[in-house]
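ARCHIVE CARD
Drawer: 12
Card no.: 0347
Subject: one protein chain, sequence and derived structure
Cross-reference: see card 0346
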Amino acid sequence: MARGRRNSRIIGAARLKGAVDKYLDYFVNTARQGARVGTGKPRLPSKDLFIVPFGQKVATGQQVRQTAAEPSWTKYKTDFSTYTDDTPPTGDGNILRPANYKAARVVIITGRSDTGVPATSNVTGLKYLKYGGTSTGIPFGKNVAADEQESVFNTISAKIKLSAAGGVKVSWTRERI
């Protein structure tokens, strides 16, 4: 066995030692951590949305309240037409807010580069490829009792990809009860 190959992990660890030191310094040096606080973009306005959960029984007419960024909902609401509603259910007690419940969400990423742009990590100092893009998430639920999360996601994803101008990536997070 070649000597370089036998010690490759040790050599690799030695190369990364400086990055590990910078990584640990980032967490220890609290002055550096807050340097960018308040410099980001303002939060987009939220839109209340209503869904019927997949894994939790609700009475007829009851829905769970969730939120999404209003500009995203405006852009994609036709793709979610039967699985997410922006009109609250009528009647007392029909808007539910279950504790620790997280709805299934479609995550839409737009504006990503295929090749990436070289960048340097502010934490470790190592180089990496930055692909950019912005993401948004919109909750969805079932339309009929037989709907399954994956099939509903596939339907919504196909609609989004069909209506998008290209370069869009669609994924999802499962419902958590």
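Annotation on reverse: Residues 1-40 form one domain. DSSP finds five helices and eight strands in the chain.
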